[in-house]
Design goal:
Radius of gyration: 16 Å
Order of helices and strands: EEEHEHHEHHEEEEEEEHEEH
Helix content: 25-40%
Shape: globular
CATH class: Alpha Beta
CATH architecture: 4-Layer Sandwich
CATH superfamily: Ribonuclease Z/Hydroxyacylglutathione hydrolase-like
Structural class: alpha/beta
Strand order of the largest sheet: 1-2-3-4-5-6
CATH topology: Metallo-beta-lactamase, Chain A
Strand content: 25-35%
Bound molecules: zinc ion
Number of helices: 7
């Protein structure tokens, strides 16, 4: 699977496009675009590579990840996948933005298809395993692509950091548990793609992450 990254919005969120060159199938993960030019960049990428967008995958429903979830789903006629634990966050995207001092009108986001722990999705015949990783939010999930050796972790784990747990639904004990039991159980060479900042690997985080001991 090819993976392309777009850094969007003032919070510098990583929107990812998973795509395969042959069949042209794509999934858009955490479309956090807030401005027309950011949406245009993603749409132009999809058009240029002649991709068929199959789904919108949400690691969690914070506004900086979800601002364009409905836009993308409507544009390509696909569903927004997320965990039920974040349903209440989806309903309050504008409120979240205001908490960050941003006056943005984002319509409440209703989840179209539920993601549960251990679900398996398929994109262009490649398996995507859903791992429930509560802690940053109640409904946070990670997407693990075993064949590509990649895991998309949202705001659960960062390069030498972890997600904040002081927002509604956050839980410090749970995020540490999720990282140790779910993410650190993956092969050490797995590339970690977080919701903000640069990529890392499971082995590097086991060795150098100061928050997980
Ligand atoms: Zn978040």
């Amino acid at each position: 699977m090819k993976i392309s990254k777009f850094i969007v919005n003032p919070i510098e969120e990583n929107t990812y496009i998973l795509w395969n060159e042959k069949g042209g199938e794509a999934a858009i993960v955490d479309p956090g675009m807030m401005y027309a030019n950011e949406r245009k960049a993603v749409d132009e990428f999809v058009a240029k590579n002649e991709l068929t967008v199959k789904m919108v995958l949400m690691t969690h429903l914070h506004f900086d990840h979800a601002a364009s979830a409905r836009y993308v789903a409507d544009r390509y006629g696909v569903k927004v996948f997320a965990n039920i634990g974040d349903a209440h966050l989806g309903e309050a995207l504008s409120t979240q933005a205001r908490m960050f001092g941003m006056d943005l009108e984002i319509k409440p986001l209703v989840i179209d298809a539920l993601l549960n722990d251990n679900d398996t999705l398929k994109l262009a015949d490649e398996k995507i395993d859903v791992l429930a990783v509560p802690g940053h939010s109640a409904g946070s999930v990670a997407f693990y692509l075993p064949a590509s050796g990649v895991v998309l972790v949202g705001d659960t784990l960062f390069c030498q950091g972890i997600g904040r747990t002081d927002l509604p639904g956050g839980n410090y004990k749970k995020i540490v548990e999720s990282i140790k039991e779910k993410l650190f159980a993956l092969p050490g060479e797995t590339v970690v793609l977080p919701g903000h900042g640069s990529s890392t690997t499971i082995d590097d985080e086991k060795s150098y992450n100061p928050y997980i001991r």
